[in-house]
Amino acid sequence: MEEVRKIALAYYANLSDGQKEKVKSLFKEMAADGDEKVTLSEYENNFKKLGLSCNIPKNSSLFKEIFQERKTSFFMELDKNGDGSLDFEEFITLFYLLKTGRLLFCTGNGCQVFLGGIFFTCPQCFDNPRKTNFTLCLDCFSSKNYSHKHPLLVDNYAFLLSKVQPKSAIATTFEVLTFGADVISVASLCAIM
């Protein structure tokens, strides 16, 4: 979360004065009692009222997990200094995650950890607007703690490069990644024998 926090603060530092005032105003509305700290109960009560959203369907299991069952632990991840509330800088992190759609969690078998850095995704699911993105943390990917119908998963950096490179480079990138996966599979089989 620390790297995400730094990114959020860097974006905030580059906002115009007017944009910064809007964020400060939203923070003050969320910290309803005027103490300039957002408690867990203020977070729960004012989240939807203030129009903060995260583009996760409300009927999905992920929404239920993060904003109902796991809301306290996610709030604690945001609470860097551990005082039980979000100060303005901690709120900026939440605001950034929600407004950029960067609020991603591992969809491995029961993991649901917040994906703050490198993660793996399925290019086929990502490019299909009718499907939910499939994202995995490094631990779930390496330990094969997932089941997914598409064979190719790539890390977020390789995926981003594939989106900006010409189509022939994309095919080459995925061929290399597929070859790498085949080599790993063969090495795993050899180790078992």
Structural overview:
The structure is a single chain. With 193 residues, the chain is mostly helical. It folds into 2 domains: 2-100, EF-hand (Recoverin, domain 1), CATH 1.10.238; 120-192, no CATH class. The protein is built from 10 helices and 5 strands; from the N terminus they run H-H-E-H-H-H-E-H-E-H-E-H-E-H-H. It has helices at residues 2-13, 17-30, 40-46, 61-69, 71-78, 88-100, 123-126, 138-142, 156-164, 167-192; strands at 38-39, 85-86, 120-121, 135-136, 154-155. A 3-stranded antiparallel β-sheet has the order 4-3-5. It has a two-stranded antiparallel ribbon with strand order 1-2. The radius of gyration is 20 Å and the shape is globular. The N and C termini lie far apart (40 Å). Mean pLDDT is 76; it is low at 182-193.
What's the gist of this structure?
The protein is mostly helical and 193 residues long.
Beta-strand content bin: 5-15%
The overall number of domains is 2
Alpha-carbon distance between the two ends: 40 Å
SSE-based structural type = mainly alpha
The largest sheet, given as strand count, sense and whether it forms a barrel, is:
3 strands, antiparallel
Q: What is the C-level CATH assignment of the largest domain?
A: Mainly Alpha
CATH architecture call of the largest domain: Orthogonal Bundle
Report the principal-axis shape. Answer: globular
Q: What proportion of the residues is helical, as a percent range?
A: 55-70%
Number of helices: 10
CATH homologous superfamily descriptor of the largest domain: EF-hand
Arithmetic mean pLDDT: 76
Low-confidence runs (pLDDT<50, min 5 residues)?
182-193
The Cα radius of gyration reads 20 Å
What fold name stands as the CATH topology of the largest domain?
Answer: Recoverin, domain 1
